[in-house]
């Protein structure tokens, strides 16, 4: 028989149990609000982040006629405000985006994309397959310089609200990767806005304010469909130079900075409140050879001799933005990459021997062009080429003037920076700025682009890169790395490919 004391103890135990349970629930709820949560749905956070960048866009239009502005707008908005059919992770591997999955037919001509359900644009409009079709057609009609990368489109159709079918007249194995960039952004067909000043997307942020040439304020999209602990706001502030940007970081005006020059981070390396991180990039630095008939570098023997004269290890060691040496047109993050640095090992004696084949005075003076940003690198290359027996004249110019010299075919060698994919495509036709013409190489590229699956594409790109490497079509120097400088209290920011895109939905701070 229970006594009154037993009943009291029982009631007290129930009270304590309920209290503990309520406390646990409150603690979990508070944790979900203030910390990153990997479950479904976007989790609110009161965090506000300020980010420093260079190269401010003068428009929010991803297809602005000014390519620099379009590129800067894409870097800020894609993955934050706008989303793409397919996306890429920090290893440059393709991942599901607004398309939860996709398949390709055996002949490589038909791509079928499954569009996610339950996704809305920030204005509340439902995103479905019709928006995808509209966006692709708008991209084609825009006449953008990169629209040819979509390949030979035969049709783009939406058989239902959750399916998009793209039909090609010839294979394009790079199509999913192309759709991870601006050509794959899905816009709201029903939106009526000025895309130069406004943005309506399906991403984790909206554009709260755009101050042309100064800043972009991103505000959390509370109805975002994806999984992310999204900051309440992110302000992208643009600076004229790296020095003032890093000063702002030290003064707590900003908490994250992406300098354009890796060496700029040295100025804050001793600050205990700051962390410096690096990440891979698909960009590379190249000593491009003019293969036109009037240039001495059109001679295969000259190109190969120049390759042997380049001490790539020393160059990589001396350049703060260098990740690793390259021997071909692909970086380690790109499909088909193979280490080709062993094709032409550093051997100035071999260079001298190869140049002795030519009659005295035949080579003349090699005209090397470089921008001011790469003057130090150019000086190093001049010394290395001269040690191998080349006579070199260096001309250092502004960026625009370098582009003019290339367009006018007024160079023998030029130091350039190339973005991912551009380097390999640049040798696929004799109409490129390098005037490179080689039947074996261009046939290898055509075979790669005719692949009907990704495995064959990568194998064929590897073969194409080797043909270019063996022919010394260019003097590839190194793959670049990105530098990110942040307050030690900040985490969750990307480090790879931040020179091209900057997804910020997972950034947090203590």
TrEMBL record:
Pfam families: SBP_bac_5 (PF00496). GO terms for biological process: peptide transport. Keywords: Membrane, Transmembrane, Transmembrane helix. InterPro entries: Peptide/Ni-bd, SBP_5, SBP_5_dom. The chain crosses the membrane at residues 12-33. Residues 93-421 form the Solute-binding protein family domain. GO terms for molecular function: peptide transmembrane transporter activity. The keyword Membrane applies. It comes from the Bacteria. GO terms for cellular component: ATP-binding cassette (ABC) transporter complex; periplasmic space. This is ABC transporter substrate-binding protein. It comes from Bifidobacterium eulemuris.
